[in-house]
Design a protein that fits this description.
With 443 residues, the chain is mainly α. The chain has helices spanning 9-12, 16-41, 68-78, 91-107, 114-144, 147-158, 163-167, 173-188, 192-203, 212-224, 234-266, 285-293, 306-329, 331-338, 353-356, 366-382, 388-391, 396-406, 413-437. It is globular and about 65 Å long.
Length: 443
């Protein structure tokens, strides 16, 4: 029996969807209030770096305009007029522009204002965050059939460390999480075409969404189905490669279309030819990330960046602990399912009574764990490591493992780590709101 009474999950799980929506809206209100109060009474660090082009932009909106939000709003206003803007996918700027146009018409104004677009962003991210939490609950319940565990997962997601990004400002992570969870839910329900559409929607907000289809569909159609029977089937393998290619192309199509647009804008004239036009298949994304933000393998591994590694360490430790806990619990099963062409099929090992109380060790989670591990390693090695504080929002494995710790048996070391994670989420989540308002890292 999962010991959930301490956190009131038994009562909340009677109406889980309503509970999730209520908690999400309460966090949205309190986060926004703290953001505005902090911005009102404390000076911002280097506030000029977040100024928009409009000199008439009201100061009370500035609390919401920090870091990448400046790019989103400028793109929504003026389009992709500068090369570095192509590092940002068009999904969120498109929503900001569309909503801003609607509000402009309601007001009878001549042009879209930044205020209209910020308000659009606040409302739309509220819907995206709440929808993502509900979908995470449905995804978790579909996998584990436990209301309390699924509810705990969604609540911990709503308490993510990057509180401002999830509950206050116009940012891409809530939308990415919404469509990622929707795609995963469709995938485990064997609705692969719908799943590819959901992953494609997610790819319009973050470029990383373009590879989700390849991973999940490749797992099912290339690794599972051809080796499912007692004998390997070459015919099923060929069919699987075709199906995987088709579905993955759908998932990646928004990213590919956006790269084609960037190529047309910057590579049409031989006089203004940019370096990336003749390399990396003419894709701008990787080159722009490297050139403007110094993204690349081990580039961030300097003594100067040590504070950012320390800030990211709680999420990194939780993430790697999740991978280790899963892999070490059933190594032969993991090996045979991951490399079926090298190792004979091995069923999941018999689970002890204590392991049976851990939904996190479900065999169905293996492709999710692989994706989680690869993403965490990529963030550690090749990215600005502190962004793991907000990108963990999109990773359900983080929240499944956190719920695994929180709902462990009383008195166990796992339970104590779960309690520490809750305290960290609450304390750091509050601090992160203040840092955001003051334009201080981590972004």
């Amino acid at each position: 029996m999962i010991p959930s009474s301490r956190y009131g999950l038994s009562q909340l799980s009677n109406r889980p969807i309503l509970s999730i929506i209520s908690i999400s809206l309460i966090l949205r209100f309190t986060t926004t209030l703290l953001l505005l109060v902090t911005h009102r009474f404390l000076p911002s660090f280097d506030a000029d770096a977040t100024k928009l082009s409009s000199p008439l932009f009201p100061s009370y909106w500035e609390a919401f305009v920090r870091w990448d939000t400046v790019y989103f709003l400028e793109i929504a206003k003026d389009g992709y007029t500068k090369e570095q803007r192509f590092a940002f996918s068009p999904g969120l700027p498109g929503i900001l522009r569309f909503g801003g146009e609607l509000l402009r018409r309601v007001r009878g104004a001549e042009e879209v204002s930044f205020e209209d677009m910020v308000l659009t962003g606040i409302v739309s991210t509220t819907m995206a965050t709440t929808g993502a939490a509900v979908l995470l609950y449905k995804l978790s319940f579909q996998l584990f059939r436990s209301r309390e565990y699924s509810l705990a997962t969604s609540i911990l997601f709503l308490l993510a460390p990057a509180r401002a990004v999830l509950h206050a400002v116009p940012y891409t992570e809530p939308f990415s999480a919404l469509f990622t969870f929707a795609g995963m839910l469709s995938f485990i329900q064997h609705q692969d075409f719908l799943s590819s559409i959901m992953f494609a929607c997610g790819a319009t907000f973050r470029a990383q969404g373009a590879v989700l289809g390849l991973g999940f569909f490749g797992w099912r159609w290339i690794l599972e189905k051809p080796f499912a029977a007692t004998r390997f089937s070459p015919r099923r393998l060929v069919q699987g490669i075709v199906v995987t290619s088709f579905l993955s192309l759908i998932s990646a199509s928004p990213f590919l279309a956006f790269q084609a647009y960037a190529y047309r804008e910057h590579c049409s004239s031989p006089i203004l030819l940019r370096p990336w036009c003749s390399s990396t298949f003419g894709f701008s994304y990787g080159w722009i990330q490297s050139h403007y933000w110094n993204v690349g393998p081990f580039r961030y591994w300097t003594l100067l960046q040590l504070p950012n590694f320390l800030l990211a360490s709680p999420v990194l430790l939780l993430s790697f602990s999740a991978s280790y806990s899963y892999y070490s619990s059933q190594p032969r099963f993991v090996r045979s399912k991951t490399l079926p062409f090298l190792f004979p099929s091995s069923p999941p090992p018999p689970r002890s009574s204590s392991d049976q109380r851990r939904p996190f060790l479900s065999p169905a989670l293996l492709p999710f764990i692989h994706l989680h591990t690869a993403t965490t390693l990529l963030l550690l090695v090749s990215s600005h490591v502190q962004i793991v504080l907000r990108l963990c929002i999109v990773d359900p494995v983080v929240w499944w493992y956190a719920a695994d710790l929180v709902l462990a048996r009383d008195g166990t070391e796992m339970r104590r780590w779960g309690e520490r994670w809750i305290w960290y989420s609450v304390v750091w989540g509050t601090i992160s709101i203040v840092l955001w308002a003051l334009f201080l890292p981590p972004a």
